[in-house]
Amino acid sequence: MGVPSFDFADLDKEAERIINEAKKKADLIIREARRKANEILSTPYPTEEIEKERKKLLRDAEEKALNIIREAEEKARSLRDKANANYEKTLAYVLKIVAGLNE
């Protein structure tokens, strides 16, 4: 049994064939990716849905802001009413003392 002989020319041809086949597959993959990318780019975005969502977010934010303002105004009004009531009681008390009507 002898040592098998290798034909380096055949090995080079096979390597070249494998490389060329890989290049063809890579080229096909790149072309398909470009085609899909162009398809995606040419497809209009669902701008109506995006616009609806944007408007809803703005509406919700405005409503929340208005509620916060209303609550703050109500608290301020309540504090003013309490301050006015206390002021009136204090003034009446001081006037009674000044007038000598202290009970």
From TrEMBL:
Domain of life: Archaea
Coiled-coil residue windows: 19-89
UniProt entry keywords in alphabetical sequence: Coiled coil
UniProt name for this protein: V-type ATP synthase subunit H
Classification lineage: Archaea, Thermoproteota, Thermoprotei, Fervidicoccales, Fervidicoccaceae
